[in-house]
């Protein structure tokens, strides 16, 4: 596989695809793209209208993707911008400009006009960002102004023209209904019954608003594909052709059928598009969290409103009460009260002061303004990362969809065959070829491949959007599906069940060793390590002198080792076993009762040794997360087995486990042993979700059926985890499982409905129980129903109280100093 070849480079792009009507379309595009050279993976999402492509940029360029997609009759949506460029009338400037622009990310086409001094740049939607292009060009020394700031969303235009088509179609069809009614109830003007009037109206519908179906059907058939349009076009065209023939042959007319089917399907498709648009509201809401302008410090010392896109790293920004924070950064003056609920789902306001980090998209709810300095802008902000993560999850396919894809692949040909069969059998048996044709037409238009195609992706979109609202990010549709099957949770102790902000609570020097010596040596080593325990030691040792050490390295899950620069020997900090391994002689009787007592209270003990001498021990305690006990109890009440895995000693582990209500404790595990244990459980048929913070549990996260990473700090780019919990709460793990279950239930419901609809609808149509017009209406609304059903997921309540159980009300204070 290309990804495993170290010499190949992989890039990923997302294209916006237009013109798809059902799963046959998305599968066809997928096939076309994945057969291109240099493409590793191509996934096309029908609901989002997006194609995700992983490719090797040295073998293929995005231009070829666009050609491939348009070549089989679909469009890649583009955005067009006009720029005024200074000096464009000089040939060298013009040439250089064209060269530069063409090389920029996402630029599909550039057309310059020397006479007007303007350039028209076409960007591929989803890849190109006009602000980046403009900034890049300005860095190259061009003087540019953007004339149309916001490209019109091509989807809006599509939707508008769809609405116009549907209204035109409706206006032309209503007279046909009246003509129909006239035959029965004798109302309405007589001339409507005139065959020529009917022919005119139906022809206008068929070749006006209905042309889009015929055109796309033709394009599909020409490329060896059969999609929904083929069914609609075949059905309506045969009704129309036969009626037209009958105008001359004086036979029965059923122009109203073809026109009604077209009108109803246009209505259905329009409603479907509107509903599909709503499945991504979670992301749009998140993007709207960014303000347009903010108060940025100018050279003259005043704060003035500045476009958020123009904020640079290092600039100072004034955040007034009620302001939205524009970029990621750190507070440099004053303090604030930040509401991050829309970003992470965390309901409580966080108070921030000088040195605290703040994230773009959060809201300042305090009384007074504070000043922050920009650190992360644009695509680097946590908000941007979250949005990207959600978008990626939404675009990917859940495994359950493969089933729908398989059905879709043969769906249209099967339906066409059934329609032919209906025509031949009904005609042959009854000799009524008019009825035979009507039945066949009904079969063609009642069959709905779109509901089947939309069943999974719309639910995945709404589900992952719901997750984002609660600060739960699924890596892809597969992760969403997997969490629904979890049977057991393995919880890491440090940083997961506890807050991951451990503090030194006591130092116990051995013999006549000085406390400063114990702390000093420990700090020298810990300065080079990256472990929550290191931070605790360093914070405690901030005014203790640290002896120089060399060649420091980390013994994963055991401690840190180095050489004293003074030549006194090896310095070791970590577990008792580690110190023994390095030849430190353990004193027979030494304060063991004191240490045991600390461990009983949940503290972690680390030891410090030099050469062969024990210098002492440091006790470090971490607060248990506020909601841990409640969340664990809730998980257990919901039937999950919960276990604790830790590298720490058993007594300390038991102390914490008792506090949160976990009975199954596995202590003194190395990172690989944690992974082994999970493998063992999985071999016994359990599906394990490992919840960890990514420090020393990456192997376990990787082997687990589901890896859930509790995000620490502002780095949520945890690409190895299936689920990232942005909100630092254990309860989020349970909510992640719940959202997965609900989403999968919704998908099953959708698939059941979509399949059942076709299984019932097609026979009914074949036996003439439903007329073609009714069939068309049913088909249109069945897909609307599927999307609406997915949207109902948004109303799911993720309550935070356990059902029937009271949260344990126990003091969370770990240490009584
Ligand atoms: N940087 C370090 N300094 C000192 N001791 C360490 C260090 N890293 C690990 N240790 C020792 O090794 C033990 C196991 O470490 P490990 O990182 O595997 O687990 P942990 O952080 O205690 O807990 P958990 O496994 O729950 O995350 C720790 O309890 C500690 O005694
Ligand atoms: Cu349909």
Automatic annotation (TrEMBL):
Chief location bin: membrane
Short name of one Pfam family: HMA
CDD domains: HMA, P-type_ATPase_Cu-like
Record's keyword annotation contains Membrane: yes
UniProt cross-references to InterPro entries, sorted A to Z: ATPase_P-typ_cyto_dom_N, ATPase_P-typ_P_site, ATPase_P-typ_TM_dom_sf, ATPase_P-typ_transduc_dom_A_sf, ATPase_P-type_domA, HAD-like_sf, HAD_sf, Heavy-metal-associated_CS
Membrane-spanning intervals of the chain: 162-184, 196-214, 410-431, 437-462, 751-770, 776-793
Signal peptide start and end residues: none
SUPFAM superfamilies: Calcium ATPase, transduction domain A, Calcium ATPase, transmembrane domain M, HAD-like, HMA, heavy metal-associated domain
Keywords from the UniProt entry: ATP-binding, Cell membrane, Copper, Copper transport, Ion transport, Membrane, Metal-binding, Nucleotide-binding, Translocase, Transmembrane, Transmembrane helix, Transport
NCBIfam families assigned to the protein according to its UniProt record, in alphabetical order: ATPase-IB1_Cu, ATPase-IB_hvy, ATPase_P-type
PANTHER family according to UniProt: ATP7, ISOFORM B, P-TYPE CU(+) TRANSPORTER
Protein name: P-type Cu(+) transporter
Classification lineage: Bacteria, Bacillati, Bacillota, Clostridia, Eubacteriales
């Amino acid at each position: 596989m290309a990804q495993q070849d170290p010499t190949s480079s992989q890039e990923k792009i997302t294209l916006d695809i237009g013109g798809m009507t059902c799963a046959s379309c998305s599968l066809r595009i997928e096939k076309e793209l994945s057969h291109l050279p240099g493409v590793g993976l191509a996934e096309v999402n029908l609901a989002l209208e997006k194609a995700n492509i992983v490719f090797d940029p040295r073998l293929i360029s995005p231009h070829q993707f666009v050609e491939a997609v348009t070549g089989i009759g679909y469009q890649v949506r583009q955005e067009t911008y006009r720029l005024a460029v200074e000096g464009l009338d000089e040939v060298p400037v013009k040439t250089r400009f064209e060269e530069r622009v063409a090389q920029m990310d996402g630029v599909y086409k550039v057309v310059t006009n020397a006479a007007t001094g303007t350039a028209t740049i076409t960007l591929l939607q989803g890849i190109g960002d006009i602000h980046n292009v403009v900034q890049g060009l300005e860095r190259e020394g061009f003087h540019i102004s953007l004339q149309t700031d916001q490209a019109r969303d091509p989807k809006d235009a599509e939707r508008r023209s769809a609405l116009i088509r549907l209204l035109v179609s409706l206006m032309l069809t209503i007279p046909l209904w009246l003509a129909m009614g006239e035959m029965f109830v004798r109302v309405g003007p007589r001339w409507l019954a005139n065959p020529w009037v009917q022919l005119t109206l139906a022809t206008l519908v068929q070749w006006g608003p209905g042309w889009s179906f015929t055109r796309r059907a033709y394009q599909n058939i020409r490329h060896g594909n059969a999609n929904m349009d083929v069914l609609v076009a075949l059905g309506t065209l045969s009704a129309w052709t036969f009626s037209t023939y009958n105008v001359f042959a004086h036979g029965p007319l059923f122009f109203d059928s073809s026109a009604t089917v077209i009108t109803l399907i246009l209505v259905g498709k329009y409603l479907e598009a509107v509903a599909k648009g709503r499945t991504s509201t979670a992301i749009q809401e998140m993007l709207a969290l960014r303000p347009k302008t903010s108060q940025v410090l100018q050279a003259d010392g005043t704060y003035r409103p500045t476009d958020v896109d123009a904020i640079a790293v290092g600039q100072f920004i004034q955040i007034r009460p009620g302001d939205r924070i524009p970029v990621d950064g750190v507070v440099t003056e004053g303090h604030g009260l930040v509401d991050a609920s829309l970003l992470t789902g965390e309901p409580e306001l966080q108070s921030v002061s000088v040195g605290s980090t703040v994230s773009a998209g959060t809201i300042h709810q305090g009384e007074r303004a504070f000043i922050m300095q920009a650190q992360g802008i644009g695509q680097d902000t946590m908000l941007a990362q979250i949005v990207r993560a959600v978008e990626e999850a939404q675009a990917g396919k859940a495994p359950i969809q493969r089933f729908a894809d398989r059905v879709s692949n043969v769906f249209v040909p099967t339906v066409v065959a059934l329609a032919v069969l209906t025509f031949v059998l009904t005609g042959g048996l009854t000799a009524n070829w008019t009825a035979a044709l009507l039945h066949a037409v009904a079969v063609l238009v009642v069959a709905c491949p779109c509901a089947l195609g939309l069943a999974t992706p719309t639910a995945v979109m709404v589900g992952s959007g719901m997750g984002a609202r609660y600060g739960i990010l699924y890596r892809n549709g597969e992760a969403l599906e997997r969490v629904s099957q979890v049977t057991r949770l393995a919880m890491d102790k440090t940083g997961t069940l506890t807050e991951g902000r451990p503090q030194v609570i006591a130092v116990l020097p051995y013999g006549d060793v000085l406390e400063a010596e114990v702390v000093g040596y420990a700090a020298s080593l810990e300065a080079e390590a990256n472990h929550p325990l290191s931070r605790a030691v360093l914070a405690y040792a901030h005014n203790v002198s640290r002896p120089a050490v060399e060649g420091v390295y980390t013994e994963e899950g055991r401690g840190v080792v180095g050489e004293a620069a003074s030549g006194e020997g090896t310095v070791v900090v970590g577990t008792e076993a580690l110190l023994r391994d390095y030849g430190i002689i353990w004193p027979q009787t030494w304060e063991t009762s004191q240490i045991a007592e600390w461990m009983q209270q949940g503290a972690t003990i680390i030891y410090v040794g030099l050469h062969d001498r024990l210098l002492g021990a440091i006790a470090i305690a971490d607060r248990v997360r506020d909601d841990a006990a409640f969340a664990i109890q809730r998980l257990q009440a919901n039937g999950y087995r919960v276990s604790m895995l830790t590298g720490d000693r058993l007594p300390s582990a038991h102390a914490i486990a008792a506090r949160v209500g976990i009975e199954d404790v596995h202590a003194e595990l190395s990172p690989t042993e944690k992974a082994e244990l999970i493998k063992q459980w999985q071999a016994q048929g359990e599906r394990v979700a490992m919840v960890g913070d990514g420090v020393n549990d990456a192997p376990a996260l990787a082997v687990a059926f589901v890896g859930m990473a509790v995000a620490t700090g502002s780095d949520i780019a945890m690409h190895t985890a299936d689920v990232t919990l942005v909100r630092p709460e254990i309860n989020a793990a349970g909510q992640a499982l719940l959202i997965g279950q609900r989403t999968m239930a919704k998908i099953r419901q959708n698939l059941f409905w979509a399949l059942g609809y076709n299984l019932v609808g097609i026979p009914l149509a074949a036996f003439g129980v439903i007329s073609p017009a009714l069939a068309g209406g049913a088909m249109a609304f069945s897909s609307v129903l599927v999307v609406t059903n997915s949207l109902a997921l948004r109303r799911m309540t993720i309550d935070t109280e356990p059902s029937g159980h009271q949260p344990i009300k126990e003091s969370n204070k770990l240490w009584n100093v």
